[in-house]
Amino acid sequence: MNRIQATFDRLGQQQRKALIPFVTAGDPSLAMTVPLMHALVAAGADVLELGVPFSDPMADGPTIQRASERALRNGMTLRGVLAMVAEFRRQDTTTPVVLMGYGNPIEAMGWEAFSQRCAEVGVDGVLTVDFPPEESHEAFEHLQRHDIAPIFLLAPTTTEARIEQVAQLARGYVYYVSLKGVTGAGNLDLSAIGEKLPQLRKHIKLPIGVGFGIRDAETARAVADMADAVVIGSRIVQEIENAAPEALLDNVKHFVAGVRAALDK
């Protein structure tokens, strides 16, 4: 069984919601990424989303764009990200890891080689922001052959036909983008999320995680009342960007632990 499914099954039995934090691999430094991953798990993360930095991140707001720029300056590559997952797996063999990024670096490596390497190092899912389901069949056949879950984004503007396509192709969980715009944007409308999720669940039987715009424990708790998982990215990346090096891990752990406590109330 894929680690993502096992994690959601366990949380379901415990009547708990999943906390899925996002960090960009290679930010603030190459050496800090794996310690950050372990710190997130220690603070209560259930699934880790690890961003693969890209030079033209169309869905990312300024905070994650800057993180990608820092990571690329540090020399981060797709192969380097995969090596980090392998290093993480030396100590943690149970926490699911999902790579989140864009198609170009994977296309350059080749989907079969990429999928095989993901399986070797312990990647559990791949979310490719710019690969819509209509164009994903061949690419994600490679992933599924290696038991890597293809994960898709849905948005407030997603049509019912697209939702049905995603329901057929997706594995692991589905990521619902809770607002129109880029990561880190404000003006989260909780009532709109509450109206949309039942529509999605008519077609999607997988867990649904909600992200974009969740910046504090109170909002995370409100979203968790409706969704199966809460995804937090920009707010954590902002902590990383603003923290002194010696305080970085403690600051991130403190924030994530606060969200975890709110979800478990």
CATH superfamily: Aldolase class I
Task: Based on Cα principal axes, name the global outline.
Answer: globular
Describe the strand arrangement of the main beta sheet, using strand numbers. 5-4-3-2-1-9-8-7-6
The CATH architecture would be Alpha-Beta Barrel
Helix content: 40-55%
Class by SSE composition: alpha/beta
CATH names the topology as: TIM Barrel
Beta-strand portion reads: 5-15%
Number of helices: 12
Order of helices and strands: HEHEHHEHHEHEEHEHEHEHH
Mean pLDDT: 92
Radius of gyration from the alpha-carbon trace, in angstroms: 17 Å
Total individual domains: 1
- Main sheet: strands, sense, barrel: 9 strands, parallel
Write up this protein:
This protein is an alpha/beta fold and 265 residues long. It has a single domain, classed as TIM Barrel, CATH 3.20.20.70. Helix content is 48%, strand content 14%. It has twelve helices and nine strands. The protein has a nine-stranded parallel β-sheet with strand order 5-4-3-2-1-9-8-7-6. α7 (137-145) links the parallel β4 (125-128) and β5 (149-151). The longest helix has 16 residues, at 248-263. The radius of gyration is 17 Å and the shape is globular. The two termini are 29 Å apart.
Helices and strands in order:
Layout: H1 3-14, E1 18-24, H2 33-42, E2 48-51, H3 62-73, H4 78-89, E3 97-101, H5 103-109, H6 111-121, E4 125-128, H7 137-145, E5 149-151, E6 153-154, H8 160-169, E7 174-177, H9 190-201, E8 208-211, H10 217-224, E9 229-232, H11 234-242, H12 248-263
Parallel strand pairs: 1-2, 1-9, 2-3, 3-4, 4-5, 6-7, 7-8, 8-9
Helix pairs in contact: 2-4, 2-12, 4-6, 5-6, 6-7, 10-12, 11-12
